[in-house]
Amino acid sequence: MAGAEPEKAPPRRFPAVLRRRAASFGYALRGVAAALRTEVHLQFHAVATVAVLVLGWVVGLARWEWALVVLAVGLVWSLELVNTAVEAVVNLVSPEYHPLAGRAKDVAAGAVLAGAVAAAAVGALVFGPRLWAWLS
């Protein structure tokens, strides 16, 4: 077989599991974007997140303070997204008012409130002393 060209190897492709993982990130980002477009509370949290990040940069937070702030922000975002999902599913399965549907929505909203109160406490503990010193 003199003069025969060597076989070309097929192009390497990502294994299927990696393609599926990459797709799942895309679906998750699509969900966050959809919630941001439609949920006023999440839009408020987005503005608050930017304000907190800018304030943290201005006051020069320590690494451990950044960790607390990022965890608090992530907690509130996560709870707000879960609340949005619960509301969508409840509206799908119970378009008419039902006391249990109302309770599910109220409990999900209560989870967001609890997370937001905890995040506000973290914010007061991290930013409070700096802001107090600045105002004094």
Automatic annotation (TrEMBL):
Family recorded in the similarity comment: Belongs to the bacterial diacylglycerol kinase family.
Statement: the UniProt record of this protein carries the keyword ATP-binding: yes
InterPro entries in alphabetical order: DAGK, DAGK_sf, UDPK
Name of the protein in its database record: Diacylglycerol kinase family protein
Alphabetic keyword roster: ATP-binding, Cell membrane, Kinase, Lipid biosynthesis, Lipid metabolism, Membrane, Nucleotide-binding, Phospholipid biosynthesis, Phospholipid metabolism, Transferase, Transmembrane, Transmembrane helix
Native source species: Hymenobacter canadensis
Protein's membrane topology: Multi-pass membrane protein
Transmembrane stretches, start-end: 40-60, 66-86, 107-127
Taxonomic placement: Bacteria, Pseudomonadati, Bacteroidota, Cytophagia, Cytophagales
GO MF annotation list: kinase activity
Subcellular location per the Swiss-Prot or TrEMBL entry: Cell membrane
